[in-house]
Specification:
The complex is a heterotrimer of chains A (147), B (327) and C (443). Chain A has two helices and nine strands, in the order αβββββββββα. By secondary structure, chain A is an alpha+beta fold. In chain A, the strands form two sheets. Chain A has a five-stranded mixed beta sheet, with no helix packed on it. Chain A has a four-stranded mixed beta sheet with strand order 2-1-4-7, with no helix packed on it. Chain B has two domains: 33-121, Sandwich (Immunoglobulin-like); 131-327, Cytochrome c-like domain (Cytochrome Bc1 Complex, Chain D, domain 2), CATH 1.10.760. In chain B, helix 5 (184-190) crosses helix 6 (198-211). The radius of gyration of chain B is 26 Å and the shape is elongated. Chain C starts with a strand and ends with a helix. Chain C is globular and about 60 Å long. Chain C folds into two domains: 1-100 and 108-178 and 183-245, no CATH class; 256-442, no CATH class. Classes of the chains: A alpha+beta (147), B alpha+beta (327), C mainly alpha (443). Chains in contact: A-B, A-C, B-C. Chain B binds chain C through residues 1-2, 4-5, 8-9, 11-12, 15-16, 18-20, 22-24, 26-27, 30, 32, 59, 61-64, 83-86, 88, and chain C through 23, 27, 30-32, 34-35, 38-39, 42-46, 48-50, 88, 93-95, 98, 370, 372-375.
C-alpha cells in the first residue's frame, strides 16, 4: 500500500477514535450531595463521580485554615473558613474528568492540593488510550511493510 | 587591559551589585508586619507603638495562609491579610492604652493565640470610669458547676410563651438586670408559683429571653459565633467543630505528660445544645466565661477583643440553641 | 531531510562570532539569577508570590521543557548564568583570552567521575526533595546559590566547565534530550579537522578558549555534551564549524551504549510519572509523604521513588529484552534500546509540565510586579488573580504530546532494535504501557 495513503487512513482512524460521538447513557439527572473536608494539603473525599446532567452540591468544610475549591473546566469556586462551611452548587453538564484544586493559598503545597471530579465516563482517557493503541499498530504495520 | 574588557567587567560588577543591593535595600526599608500561624510565631513584630491622635499606617503580609487583622474593642472592619500580598491599614487612636490586635480568619487550632498589642501613648483626654463586668459585681464563681436539675421535654417556644405571659398576673417583663443575672432554670423556678404547667413555664422563659434581645442582636451574635466560635463549638453549637477532635487529642496528650496537672488541660468544646448546661447558666455567667476564657482549656480569652455589646449579642445567640424564637 | 546551515547567514554568523551579544545576554541572565537567589532568601516565604519560585519553577521550567529543550537542545546551556563567574575567574577575562592566564589548578576531572552518574545523583537528590524545593523560596534560593558557588569552586580546581559537564542536575537531562532537538553544532568537513594543526577548538588560541565542555568538535556525532557555547566557532581558523537545522531526533539513530545515559533515561521517565501521580494526582497521603522530608513516610516515599526508577522500570524493560535474541551482550542491548525512552521521556515531561504550567502561569504576572512580596506594583499586574489558563485544551494537548511521544519512541525503538539485531516489539509494548499509565495519571 502507498505509505501516504496508509498514513491518511491512520489519521482518519485517529479522528474517529478521538471525536466519534458516543451514545450518552440516559440517566435521569439527580442532585448529588458531597461533603468535602479540606485540610493542608488534601481533600477528602478527593475523587467524586457523578453522571452528566447531575446537580453537584459540594459542602466544603475546612479543618485547619481557610481553603478554597475551584473546579477546572467549570470555572466555579467556593471558599470556606474553619467553622464556616460553604456550599458550591453547579450542574455537571460537561462530561469528562476535571481536577478541582484549592484557590486560596493555604501553605507550601497549596498548588498541589488537588482532587478529581469525573462526570459520566472519563471517555477522553479511553479515547487517548485508543489513540495510543492505534499509533502502536500503525508503527508496527509500517515496520512490517518495510521488512 | 583593553578598554572593552574593562568596561565589560565594570558592567558585570555593577549588575551584580544592583542584583544584590537593590533587593536588600528595599527589603530593609519596607517595614512589614508578618503574619504566620501561631505555631510558627504568630505576628512579628507583635508589639506596635502608636500615639494618640496620630494616624499610624501599617503594612501587613502573610507568610503562609489567609489571616485577618482587627483591633479588639474597636469599631473597625477586619482586613484580610493574604499570603504574599501586602495589606495597608491606617489606624487612628483617640485614647491611650494597650490595645489587642488579633487574627480574624481561622488559621489552625491555635488561631486564637495569634494576637499582639498596640501600645498607644499620649495624655488621656478624659479618664472614663471603669466599671467591673457584671459577673464580677455579682461575685459569680464561673468555674462552679451550674447544671439545671430539670430540663424541658421539648424545645421551649417563645410565641406560645408570649400568649401565656399576657395571662399571668405577675410582672412578666422583668428588668434587663433580672434577665442578665438569672439562668433560665432560675426563672423557671421563680415561675413555679403560677398555675402554669412545666412546659408552659419553659415557654414563658423562652419568651422572656426573646424579649430581652432583638433580631439585629441575634443576627450580629450569629455572625460573631460563626467567625469566632463555630470552628470548635460547631456550626450548630453541638460542640463538634472541626477542631473538637484536635482539642480532645491535645487534652489527652497533656494528661499523659509528666506534669499533667500543670500543663494546659485542653478540653473538648462545650455543647451549647445541651440543655442541662445551658439552662443552668445565666447571661452574666456566660459573660464571665467568654471574657476570661477557659484558662488553659483551649477556650480563648475574649475580654480584650469583644465589646460589651458584642458579648451580650453573642450570649443571646447562644441561648437560641435552646429556645425557639419568633422567626 | 537535508540539513540547513544556519551559520551561512552572515547576520547569525556575526552575532555568534562577536562576543558582545552573548555577553549582553549573560549579564541579564546573571543579574536575574542573583536576583532570584536574593528573592528566595529575603522575599516572601509564600512560593506562589515569590520571584524565585515563580520565575524558576514556572517561567524558566516552562521555557526549558516546552521550548528550549525540544527545539534548541542545549540552547539553555548557551545562555545559562551558573558557570559564568567561575569561568570568568578561570579564564581571567570576560571577553577574548588575556595575554597572561591566571594560575588555577586546572586539574583534569578523575576518570571515574567522567560520566553523568554524578548528574544522575544530583538530579535524584533534588527530585527526592522536590516538593519542598518547588514550594519553599528560601530552599530554592539556597539551591541556586549552592549551584553558583559549586560552579565557581569547581572552576578553580578543575579545567574547563567541570560543573556543567559532570555535576549540574539539569545539564544531564538537557543533554540527553538535546539529541532529539532539530538543532546541532557540527563540523562541515572532516578532512579539514584532520589536517588542522594544534586543534585550537579544543586547546584554545588567541581568538578564543578551548572547548569548555571538554569535547573535540571534530568528533561530534551527537548533541549530548556540546553546550552550544559557540567558542569553537570563534576559535576555528578554517571556518569549519556550523550550526545546523536538522530533522528532529537525528542523534537517536546512533544509539548510545553507556549505562549512565541509559539510566538517565529511566530516571527522567520515572520521575515524570511519579510527579504526575504525586503532585497532580488526587491522593493526599502521597503529597504528605513527599512533603514531609525526614519523616518515616518520606523515607518510604524515597525508597519507593528509587525502587521505581532503578528497579521496576528497568526491571520490566529487561524482562522485555530477555525475550529477544541477539548476539550483543545484554548490557549493550539494554543501553542501546533505552534510546527509545528518550523521546518518550521528553514528551512525558512536556505533558506533565503543560498541566502544571498552564494552571499556574497567571502567577508570573503578579510576581513580575511584586517580585519580593513587598507590596509593589511595578507593572500594574500585582493584583492579577490566579486563574488556570486554557483548561479546555489541556487534556487534548497532553494526549497529543503523549501519543506523539509514543510514535516517536516506537520508531526510535525500531531503529535501535534493528542495529542491535533484535525485535523492537517488546520495547514498543513497554512504551505503550508506560504511555497508558501516564495518560491515566494525567487525564
Amino acid at each position: 500500500m502507498n505509505p501516504r495513503f496508509s498514513l491518511l487512513l491512520f489519521m482518519m482512524a485517529g479522528m474517529v477514535v478521538a471525536f466519534a460521538p458516543l451514545p450518552v447513557p440516559a440517566v435521569a439527572p439527580q442532585a448529588r450531595i458531597f461533603r468535602i473536608d479540606a485540610r493542608q494539603y488534601a481533600y477528602s473525599a478527593s475523587e467524586l463521580e457523578v453522571n452528566q446532567g447531575d446537580t453537584v452540591i459540594i459542602r466544603l468544610v475546612s479543618a485547619d485554615v481557610v481553603h478554597g475549591l475551584y473546579v477546572d473546566g467549570y470555572d466555579v469556586s467556593v471558599e470556606a473558613d474553619p467553622g464556616q462551611s460553604a456550599t458550591l452548587t453547579f450542574i455537571a453538564d460537561k462530561p469528562g474528568s476535571f481536577r478541582f484544586r484549592c484557590n486560596l493559598t493555604c501553605g507550601a503545597m497549596h498548588p498541589f492540593m488537588i482532587g478529581k471530579l469525573t462526570v459520566g465516563n472519563n471517555n477522553w482517557l479511553f479515547r487517548s488510550i485508543g489513540l495510543a493503541m492505534l499509533a502502536v499498530f500503525g508503527v508496527i504495520l509500517s515496520i512490517k511493510q518495510k521488512a | 587591559m583593553r578598554r572593552a574588557e574593562l568596561l565589560s567587567r565594570i558592567l558585570i560588577i555593577i549588575g551584580i551589585i544592583l542584583a544584590v543591593g537593590a533587593p536588600l535595600y528595599f527589603w530593609k526599608s519596607t517595614p512589614i508586619i508578618h503574619a504566620q500561624m501561631a505555631d510558627d510565631g504568630g505576628w512579628s513584630p507583635d508589639v506596635i507603638q502608636a500615639e494618640v491622635g496620630k494616624p499610624i499606617r501599617l503594612k501587613f503580609t502573610s507568610d503562609d495562609v489567609v489571616h485577618g487583622f482587627a483591633v479588639g474593642q474597636m469599631d473597625m472592619q477586619s482586613m484580610d491579610i493574604l499570603p504574599g500580598k501586602v495589606t495597608d491599614v491606617t489606624l487612628n487612636f483617640d485614647k491611650p492604652g494597650i490595645y489587642t490586635f488579633f487574627c480574624t480568619r481561622w488559621c489552625g487550632l491555635n488561631h486564637w493565640r495569634m494576637r499582639g498589642t498596640i501600645e498607644v501613648s499620649g495624655s488621656p483626654s478624659d479618664p472614663e470610669p471603669i466599671s467591673p463586668p457584671l459577673y464580677v459585681s455579682l461575685d459569680l464563681d464561673i468555674d462552679a458547676p451550674h447544671d439545671a436539675p430539670i430540663i424541658p421535654s421539648q424545645t421551649p417556644f417563645a410565641i406560645r410563651g408570649e400568649s401565656l405571659a399576657t395571662q399571668l398576673p405577675i410582672n412578666i417583663y422583668p428588668s434587663p438586670d433580672y434577665y442578665l443575672s438569672h439562668s433560665p432554670y432560675q426563672v423557671f423556678t421563680d415561675l413555679s408559683n403560677t398555675s402554669l404547667s412545666e412546659s408552659q413555664r419553659w415557654d414563658v422563659v423562652a419568651y422572656i429571653w426573646q424579649s430581652n434581645t432583638t433580631k439585629e442582636s441575634l443576627e450580629n451574635g450569629k455572625q460573631l459565633y460563626a467567625q469566632n466560635c463555630a470552628a470548635c463549638h460547631g456550626e450548630n453549637g453541638a460542640g463538634d467543630g472541626v477542631f473538637a477532635d484536635d482539642l480532645a487529642q491535645a487534652g489527652e496528650a497533656s494528661m499523659q505528660s509528666m506534669s499533667g496537672a500543670m500543663d494546659m488541660m485542653m478540653q473538648t468544646p462545650v455543647d451549647f445544645t445541651d440543655p442541662t448546661r445551658m439552662l443552668g447558666a445565666s447571661p452574666a455567667l456566660l459573660q464571665g466565661k467568654i471574657l476570661r476564657g477557659g484558662m488553659g482549656t483551649g477556650m480563648p480569652m475574649w475580654g480584650s477583643i469583644f465589646t460589651e455589646e458584642q458579648i451580650w449579642d453573642l450570649i443571646a445567640y447562644l441561648y437560641s440553641f435552646q429556645f425557639e424564637y419568633e422567626k | 531531510m537535508a540539513k540547513i546551515e544556519l551559520t551561512r547567514n552572515p547576520f547569525i554568523k556575526n552575532a555568534i562570532k562577536s562576543r558582545y551579544p552573548q555577553l549582553a545576554v549573560f549579564i541579564v541572565m546573571l543579574v536575574g539569577y542573583i536576583f532570584a537567589i536574593l528573592a528566595g532568601l529575603i522575599g516572601t516565604p509564600v512560593g506562589s508570590h515569590n520571584f524565585s519560585i515563580v520565575f524558576v519553577w514556572i517561567a524558566w521550567w516552562a521555557v526549558l521543557i516546552l521550548v528550549a529543550v525540544p527545539f534548541f537542545g542545549r540552547g539553555w546551556c548557551a545562555v545559562c548564568p551558573i558557570p559564568l563567574p567561575g569561568e570568568w575567574l578561570q579564564r581571567g577575562a570576560v571577553l577574548s583570552p588575556p595575554e597572561k592566564r591566571p594560575k588555577w589548578l586546572n586539574l583534569r576531572v578523575p576518570k571515574m567521575f567522567r560520566n553523568i552518574w554524578l548528574q544522575n545523583i544530583s538530579f535524584l537528590l533534588l527530585a527526592l526533595f522536590s516538593s519542598v524545593l518547588l514550594t519553599t523560596p528560601n530552599i530554592t534560593g539556597i539551591v541556586l546559590a549552592v549551584m553558583l558557588f559549586a560552579a565557581i569552586g569547581l572552576s578553580t580546581i578543575f579545567e574547563r566547565r567541570a560543573f556543567c559537564r559532570y555535576l549540574c542536575p539539569v545539564g544531564g537531562f538537557i543533554g540527553l534530550y538535546s539529541q532529539t532537538a532539530p538543532i546541532e553544532l557540527r563540523i562541515k568537513d572532516k578532512q579539514v579537522c584532520v589536517k588542522c594543526e594544534g586543534k585550537p577548538c579544543y586547546n584554545g588560541s588567541a581568538a578564543g578558549y578551548g572547548c569548555p565542555w571538554d569535547v573535540f568538535p571534530g568528533g561530534l556525532t551527537k548533541n549530548t555534551y556540546c553546550g552550544l557555547c559557540m567558542e569553537c566557532i570563534r576559535t576555528c581558523p578554517h571556518d569549519n564549524i556550523a550550526i545546523n537545522l536538522r530533522p528532529f531526533s537525528a542523534d537517536l539513530a546512533k544509539p548510545s551504549t553507556r549505562m549512565d545515559e541509559a539510566f538517565k533515561a529511566f530516571i527522567m521517565l520515572g520521575s515524570a510519572m511519579i510527579y504526575a501521580g504525586v503532585l497532580l494526582g488526587p491522593w493526599g497521603t502521597l503529597k504528605d509523604a513527599a512533603y514531609g522530608v525526614g519523616t518515616g513516610a518520606w523515607f518510604i516515599y524515597a525508597v519507593v521513588f528509587l525502587a521505581i526508577i532503578f528497579g521496576i522500570l528497568p526491571g520490566f524493560f529487561s524482562l522485555g529484552l530477555l525475550k529477544t535474541k541477539s548476539n550483543l551482550p545484554f548490557k549493550q542491548r539494554f543501553a542501546s534500546l533505552s534510546t527509545a525512552l528518550i523521546p518518550l521521556g521528553l514528551m512525558f515531561w512536556v505533558a506533565f509540565s503543560l498541566s502544571f504550567v498552564l494552571t499556574n502561569a497567571s502567577y508570573i504576572l503578579a510576581a513580575l510586579s511584586d517580585p519580593l512580596g513587598l507590596g509593589w506594583n511595578l507593572f500594574g499586574t500585582a493584583n492579577f488573580a490566579w486563574q488556570p489558563m486554557l483548561t479546555t485544551i489541556l487534556a487534548p494537548a497532553q494526549t497529543l504530546a503523549l501519543v506523539v511521544g509514543l510514535i516517536w519512541s516506537a520508531r526510535t525503538a525500531q531503529k535501535s532494535a534493528s542495529e542491535a539485531g533484535v525485535s523492537p516489539l517488546p520495547i514498543i509494548f513497554y512504551s505503550f504501557v508506560a504511555t497508558s499509565t501516564m495518560l491515566w495519571l494525567l487525564l
